């Protein structure tokens, strides 16, 4: 293997552990931007000549460096242009962007203000949930889970009050509050008639006072509705104007709290993780003990997941000087240095102008490493070479292999394309951490020995730039994994030196790739150059049907066994084979999904009434009901009723997505949503992709493959009650704490006892309880993470 994987890997991503890797690190850094996967090596191009000499030893395998160096500087110029438009994909492009267009610094402020105002303007409606759906949901949940939704309310309220919000918002948005403190709770509850507590009120109060507590609500009322009047009342009430109710609720709470032993906040004792990864600790990727025991790292095994036997319950320390992240879209161009203080990266990149330190910021001029002259130019060049790719219409969800700091994905938002980017975890490069800090979706993953955590045939396009992944070796094992993930008729865009350079090594790889892709029935649909960015690309198309497979003279690569489930992707070893394509018109993959944005709402053609949905109805009805349910909940409750300042929310995770209804309902917000389908839930992930959303499989008894402090909002619908049967809730909560940014929110809908338990846990972490509501056996909780960290270190991690 000319390109021994091991070698490459070492060269590039070495780092984590030893100092010896310093050199490597350097290299890595440079390369980092887009390297990805284990195998991928970026083209050497990126490196500055000087540097390359230093590292050579490590780097050797890379092809001769191409120089883009000069141009990179130039890139910054371009950056300006691009910066002009920031749009979110999720949002209607047009809408959001306008505000953002101006992006000058001042704008930020403006932007913020606007956002802040928004809420005010809108009336708050209490969150309501829907009952209608109950059945469905319940089912969905499970299966046995309760039906939370129902519980909630039907009520709508009528009025909405706006007033308080301003204050709240302002304060909220403001900065960080000391976490530690809690304020007393006030309880508001209104139980009586008016009673329903309205969430808005609560929230507001909370903010004002700091903590809120809950409500109890025994009342019949549904989840909080808010009427304006009520809000007002509540405020009055808070202080005890309505002593009776307050007292009542308070008592209740106390009673409840005391009744549950597990729920007692004093029973939790949190300590700081004592890991060498310190503030960047990812338990399943930083398991040094397990990594040391690996017999080989040739296939990047050391970058794969190795979860601790006992999931940690410690808390990850906060970097010194951590600040609330800059808001999207400004964050695409700059982030706080103190939040991702990777000096080497900054230094090295500084030379190259991909990333540079400027005052308190890290800047990403010109779209990052791979595109010295602008990622958008590159993106548009792809579409010129292949108009049928139709960004934002035919092509909506794509995979970027070896994303680096994910500039490609960041700019794809401008074309209404959602990009799942991944790169191997590397302590020194921390590329994925940069991507997420910028507000661009990415996970730490590697093309090693196992399948990537996605279902088969879901990505419209797969992209790999500066991609040094040894696709052609070992029977094409890694390229065959991409083949599994690619939708029939989908495209693979490969821009790497073998496509446009003539060095002997490049030629050799090109020839091997040509033979491999041909044997896989991939058709090269164009090969072209982005002259401005000095890269060339070859675009391949996966077949739509089995004709070509059947006509091959040699069964190589072989077809997978019929028993091989192409969607099985959790810890499933890679195998060098191809799955047969769907046969028959009613099967998923038989035809291309609707174009975006129609895809979002349309029931996938392959869901029909003869299948039973997650909630027990015919699948197509189930889908529609779920969609309607979440639209209602999100617009009434989450967006308008909880006091969340959505301008501060960018990275969102639905920890237990079913059909992606929650994510779909957030489409008008400037957010992206990572939809997680837990491994023990019905596998609805293909449906999520079919509608132009994305996500992955995960087991919440283990840590998620992301850096600490990378999400602004986590949403868990009937997840924890289910999880606590399999693993320790405290460990799951520690993971939630790890993933969530300070001042990030967690919204939970679950059984009442789980809600109570989580509330106590949140309080023991000095989080602010923004809203709690329980009724019957169902409850809703909204909490905000604080900056608080324990002082004491755990013995070892
Ligand atoms: C996007 O915004 C435009 C203009 O505001 C509107 O006409 C269009 O319907 C929106 N599209 C979607 C999908 O929201
Ligand atoms: C925010 O809260 C502080 C104290 O809680 C208060 O003094 C200040 O006026 C509030 N700001 C706004 C804008 O309401
Ligand atoms: C609540 O009452 C206390 C004492 O009765 C008073 O000091 C405080 O200002 C009141 N708070 C509000 C918000 O009315
Ligand atoms: C390939 O791309 C070039 C532009 O890069 C375009 O002019 C040409 O028509 C394309 N070829 C095909 C077959 O689409
Ligand atoms: C419904 O879907 C199933 C599974 O995709 C398929 O076998 C069946 O033919 C479909 N029925 C109709 C009427 O389309
Ligand atoms: C933290 O871990 C290191 C190395 O495992 C250990 O030497 C040290 O004692 C630990 N610190 C504490 C406070 O236990």
Automatic annotation (TrEMBL):
<keyword id="KW-0735">Signal-anchor</keyword>
<dbReference type="GO" id="GO:0005737">
    <property type="term" value="C:cytoplasm"/>
</dbReference>
<dbReference type="InterPro" id="IPR004159">
    <property type="entry name" value="Put_SAM_MeTrfase"/>
</dbReference>
<feature type="compositionally biased region" description="Basic and acidic residues">
    <location>
        <begin position="100"/>
        <end position="155"/>
    </location>
</feature>
<keyword id="KW-0489">Methyltransferase</keyword>
<dbReference type="GO" id="GO:0032259">
    <property type="term" value="P:methylation"/>
</dbReference>
<feature type="compositionally biased region" description="Basic and acidic residues">
    <location>
        <begin position="202"/>
        <end position="215"/>
    </location>
</feature>
<comment type="similarity">
    <text>Belongs to the methyltransferase superfamily.</text>
</comment>
<keyword id="KW-1133">Transmembrane helix</keyword>
<dbReference type="Pfam" id="PF03141">
    <property type="entry name" value="Methyltransf_29"/>
</dbReference>
<feature type="compositionally biased region" description="Low complexity">
    <location>
        <begin position="258"/>
        <end position="269"/>
    </location>
</feature>
<protein>
    <recommendedName>
        <fullName>Methyltransferase</fullName>
    </recommendedName>
</protein>
<dbReference type="GO" id="GO:0012505">
    <property type="term" value="C:endomembrane system"/>
</dbReference>
<keyword id="KW-0808">Transferase</keyword>
<dbReference type="GO" id="GO:0008168">
    <property type="term" value="F:methyltransferase activity"/>
</dbReference>
<dbReference type="GO" id="GO:0016020">
    <property type="term" value="C:membrane"/>
</dbReference>
<keyword id="KW-0812">Transmembrane</keyword>
<keyword id="KW-0325">Glycoprotein</keyword>
<feature type="region of interest" description="Disordered">
    <location>
        <begin position="63"/>
        <end position="270"/>
    </location>
</feature>
<feature type="transmembrane region" description="Helical">
    <location>
        <begin position="21"/>
        <end position="41"/>
    </location>
</feature>
<feature type="compositionally biased region" description="Basic and acidic residues">
    <location>
        <begin position="161"/>
        <end position="192"/>
    </location>
</feature>
<feature type="compositionally biased region" description="Polar residues">
    <location>
        <begin position="234"/>
        <end position="248"/>
    </location>
</feature>
<dbReference type="InterPro" id="IPR029063">
    <property type="entry name" value="SAM-dependent_MTases_sf"/>
</dbReference>
<keyword id="KW-0472">Membrane</keyword>
<feature type="region of interest" description="Disordered">
    <location>
        <begin position="1"/>
        <end position="20"/>
    </location>
</feature>
